[in-house]
Amino acid sequence: MKAIVVREFGAPQVMKLETAPDPAAGPGQVVIRVKAAGVNPVDTYVRSGIYPRKPPLPYSPGMDAAGVVESVGTGVTRVKPGDRVYAFLISGAYAELAVCDETQVRPLPEKASFEQGAALGIPYATAWLALFSRAGARPGETVLVHGASGGVGIAAVQIARAHGLHVIGTAGTDEGLQAIRSEGAHVALNHHTPGYLDALTGLEGGQTPHVIVEMLANVNLDRDLDVISPRGRIVIIGNRGRGEIDARKAMGKDATIRGLMVFNASREELHEAFAGINAGLETGALRPRIGRRIPLADAAQAHEAVMSPGALGKIVLIP
């Protein structure tokens, strides 16, 4: 099979398309013929060597995939060869074939494309866990989603709107603002506009967010504490450097700041998240938006794109 292989940590160009042995399914495992692989920011952190969890070299990147079951190992009962599936938190999705445990595979509804399936794992699980497992969001509350036009952001907007929250999203381009409105945000704000969060005091009679989903904590967290409601919850799912906050702001509002890394989620939390995600897929409430489709051989280009400003939807690799 063809696969992207990393033999040293570094810039995107360390990823090379190579011929690798076809994987075989061991007990409890599934081999998937990959039709699309999701590209996540965390993939770039791992590839560069800055992520706390480093795989042994050489390795094939990619944690989200969708495709058709090629073969199954002994003891596998939930899927069979020929089934349409998506897989999450796996290893080696940037390849024509990927192997993972049966527990990492879910059926892909017919109304969802393979590209959409590849956009589900990390983005939608992260959004679900942030809103419900960490923030305990409830219908009728207001949620602010920073960077709402990216893969996780759009997931958070769709999930929050489907569960009865008032949704405010931010983006940095006119196209992004239009996209998050079309995905269900009640209000869209341009985060490049000076003082853009000041507009929150004029919304809904001055209602401020009960929940903030934070994609860039090193830039936004201190300002988040200015606008969060009393006893509000801020969930940090993205950060690109050290930042400084005035902790008295959190004290004055009894605000909660929680971090989230999807790899720390329990099996029970993931089961709940993907049960809800699949239900949303089947009803059409959740609709992953694909921003770019890039050939597998151009994985380096995909890694550069996913870290560039102005993200709109999900980037997927096509083997």
Give keywords.
9 helices, about 30% helix, Rossmann fold, alpha/beta, globular, Quinone Oxidoreductase, Chain A, domain 1, seven-stranded mixed β-sheet, 2 domains, about 325 residues, single chain
Give your account of this protein's structure.
With 319 residues, the chain is α/β, with parallel strands linked by helices. The chain has two domains: 2-120 and 288-318, Medium-chain alcohol dehydrogenases, catalytic domain (Quinone Oxidoreductase, Chain A, domain 1), CATH 3.90.180; 123-263, Rossmann fold (3-Layer(aba) Sandwich), CATH 3.40.50. The chain is 29% helix and 24% strand. The protein is built from nine helices and 15 strands. It has helices at residues 41-48, 114-118, 121-134, 151-162, 174-182, 217-227, 247-253, 267-283, 299-306; strands at 2-6, 15-19, 29-38, 64-72, 84-87, 97-101, 105-107, 142-145, 166-171, 187-190, 211-214, 233-236, 256-259, 290-295, 314-318. Strands 3, 4, 5, 6, 7, 14 and 15 form a seven-stranded mixed sheet that branches. β11 (211-214), α6 (217-227) and β12 form a beta-alpha-beta unit. The longest helix is centred in the C-terminal third of the chain and has 17 residues, at 267-283. The chain is globular, with a radius of gyration of 20 Å. The chain starts with a strand and ends with a strand. The relative contact order is 0.16.
Number of domains: 2
Strand content: 15-25%
Give the rounded overall mean pLDDT.
95
CATH superfamily of the largest domain: Medium-chain alcohol dehydrogenases, catalytic domain
Shape: globular
Helical fraction: 25-40%
Largest sheet: 7 strands, mixed
Radius of gyration: 20 Å
CATH architecture of the largest domain: Alpha-Beta Complex
Q: What separation lies between the terminal Cα atoms?
A: 10 Å
Instruction: Provide the succession of SSEs.
Output: EEEHEEEEHHEHEHEEHEHEHEHE
Q: Count the beta strands.
A: 15
CATH classification, class level of the largest domain: Alpha Beta
The CATH topology of the largest domain is Quinone Oxidoreductase, Chain A, domain 1
Annotation field: number of helices: 9
Q: Pick out the low-confidence regions.
A: none
**Derived structural class:** alpha/beta
